[in-house]
Amino acid sequence: MPAAVQAKSNTAPAAPADAQAQPAPADQAAPADQVTAPTAEEIKDVVVTATKRATNLQKTPIAISVLSSKDLQDRHVQSLYDLADGAVPSLRVATFEARQNALTIGIRGIVPLDANQPAREQGVGIYIDGVYLGRQHGLNAALFDLERIEVLKGPQGTLFGRNTEGGALSLVSRAPSGKFELRATAGVSNYNGYNTDIHVDFPEVANFSFKVDGLIQHQDASTANPLPGQTGWNYYDRRALRVATRWKPVDNYTADLAVDIGRDASTPFYSQLLNFNPNNCRGTVNGVNTPAAAQPRCVLPGTNPTSFSGTIAQLPPLVVINGTSRMDVADIGVPQQPSVDQTFGVSLTQKWKFASWGELRSITAYREVQSYQWDNSGGAHRPPVFRPTLVNGVLTGNAFSRYSLANLWQQQWSQEIELVGSIPRLDYVVGLYYFYERANDDAATPNTNTWNATGTAFTINDPTPTIPGLRSLDRQSRAEATSYAAFGQATYTPPIANDTLHLTVGGRFTRDEKSGRLTIVNNIPRPFAFALNASRFNPLVTLAWDAAPGINVYAKYATGYRSGGASSRSVTYRSFGPEDITSYEVGFKTQFWDRRITLNIAAYIADRTGTQADFSVVQFDPITNSNRNTIETVNAPGTTRIRGVEIDGSITPIDGLTLSGGYAYTYTRIPQVVNPVTGVLQDFFIVFTPRNAANAALDYAYRLDKMTLKLHVDANYAQSTQTFDQYATRNDASFLVNGRLTLADIRLNDSGARFNLSVWARNMFDAQFVYRRDPSNSLGALPAAVVVNGQNTFPVSSVNNILGDYGNFNAPRTFGVEMGFKL
């Protein structure tokens, strides 16, 4: 269950207000496989570091959920994408397109659709031990030995900075303990899956403590590729290694050095053709174009054609339409190899408690990611459609199956300095921050297959156009970003009302400098560039009241922003500015019945201005004298409104049994936006944000003679959502159940060694639903511009490439057995 409100005996007790904000030492936090049945007296406070200091979750005036190491183990969470099932209702995780190697992460309706470019930013900040991760790429790498994941909801612009409009995801690793400990887990699962991890804590020597973590996670494809020797879909193989060193020469100084390296090889989910021409679109009939007014369902958003031209092509006999169930074997075999993300990072965190009233901290970090994308998930389920042509008098089939090939290389450096401390009635944190990033990418989309004249067979094309260095590049770009910030926040407790009132005031000034170049379009060198300089001041004010023992109330005003940038999918590298958000929130955090019951409620309204809106449009490229599908991004006028309520709670009615649950209501509305190319006013939507989402969990632990029997079951629901921001078409609602049964704390002798044996299942009942649906290929095409009286008009839309909606089903049921060992 998500430890959103309470933790058991594996959580460190609450720290005083001036305690340093660092992970609890490993010897204070027992591994998940040692947890026994909790009693009321054993229910401990959850410690979080959301305010840059260790505080009691229930007394921290922030809407925050915590996933402990036990929660992650119970759900069999191996990577961030495993949180897509709804572990925290207001946290939404989805693949970018169908690809597992780049994740879209959103909180409270802040979910950017396309941050998968060097000059674009996310709306939720991802942090590993205080270090910000600049790119979507590499986010689905294997998770190391985490102590917890903190999900901070709402703008975090004061303490965490830019690109935290929706909130922040803070991953906290287990630090070296200085005492010998060996923990290992090994397991097997269906789809030829296996996983193993090993964690070794070494005894302290000469004030140095060392810890090594190693992981392997593997699963074969759940949708097979019928082309021999080629990888199927929903495959992954992750390898990771982390080495951490803690140096503590004196009591008031600590230095933590960590180095990690990871490799994530994966393939996308299979993109199935869900239907065929579902809107019954027609083009040219008896030589006459069909009026658009007669078939409004066929009009592509952002266009207003007067008529439709062309013809609907028939499907080849080999193509399968399946909108009801996940395909175990693809209908069309295609060349495909795994996409590979390689990550590397090193960080040095220093803490010097120089006086009773202050601690100086420094976080120095370097990270890089290299991403090599090979995505051939669509096959014949997306254009080009089957349309034979005469070549030298011979009827010949056309090429198909778009292989999306893209590379990205990114490096980042960051330095943060903080002064954290307390004086009578005042807790404070002030700091300076520096961040530099450079990244470059390229992309190509060759077709890998060719139909025969009847669509009854196909051949595989010459692979040369897919080889790096020989590809015809659709685009190539590079970008740099530098950010400077100064921030401060203080909480004052006035000598009134029995010290139950707490006023927090904070602010952050940020200066962003960003530039980039689009160097190739349609395989031809281009001169396009952009440069943006922007400054922001983000204030925060919070008033908290300890209304009674176990009852804490707060009201919060907070702001945040997402940096501007440029779209490398634009022919002209159009730039856009930052977007800003202002949020008002009230919250209630309560515990009663000897802390057996916890109930937390937060309600908020948020207004976003300068919304970065993406438009899929056709642009004319004068150099190649051709039209090209592109993405133009503009700052939309008006105010995007986001409103929500979040509830989470738990109850321990008897010792050993805990029932918990959460609910999130999220309302979003973007005003209509004028398409910058066609001039048409159109609707826009926030993606992957269900109006209603909820979860519930049951945890039961029963102590046997020499072991503990543990049961965990969680159920997660999400209402259907838009998955593309320009279409009202929605995906399917989802309901997923996960479970784990464990025999823990098995002692074979008196040596201290402990074992545990578990069986687990994700998506226990094999629910099947379309989590991503794309209707663009069931609508008329983006019309090409026609100049009339000096003005661009878009009168005719073609139906030549209409197939139908295509989409991706969720992951199938996976299950397995694991054995753990601790010495």
Which descriptors would you attach to this protein?
823 residues, mainly beta, 22-stranded antiparallel barrel, 1% helix, globular, disordered N terminus
Q: Would you write up a description of this structure?
A:
- By secondary structure, this protein is mainly beta.
- Helix content is 1%, strand content 54%.
- It contains 1 helix and 50 strands.
- The strands form 11 sheets. It has a 22-stranded antiparallel barrel. A 5-stranded mixed beta sheet has the order 3-8-9-6-7.
- The chain is globular and about 85 Å long.
- The relative contact order is 0.15.
Concise synopsis of the structure shown:
The protein is an all-beta fold and 823 residues long.
